[in-house]
Amino acid sequence: LTVCGNKVVEEGEQCDCGSTESCLQDPCCSSDCVLKPGAQCAFGLCCQDCQFLQTGTVCRQEKNECDLPEWCNGTSAECPGDVYKADGIPCSGEGYCYKMECHQRDEQC
Length: 109
Known about the structure:
mainly beta; 2 domains; 3-stranded antiparallel beta sheet; A disintegrin and metallopeptidase domain 26b; Disintegrin_dom_sf; signal
């Protein structure tokens, strides 16, 4: 059951700003759960001021040297899923990426 006004974007809704009072303050979303004219998005790591961030804008920094940054694609408010270097890729001199982190050979001894 889809309920407009519960602050949860459900099937058939573009956005959901909550109560009528909240929606009056929302620059992107209207009280009928659709984007206001000129708005491309209402939320998301790749949404700012109701517009998609430009292609190539970093939306998630790398956490370590085996992690890769993620970038906005310019056509979506969502940041792509987190991506890591493949297991076996060299890191930190003599280490290797394994299960999303850099591990040294000496750690196993």
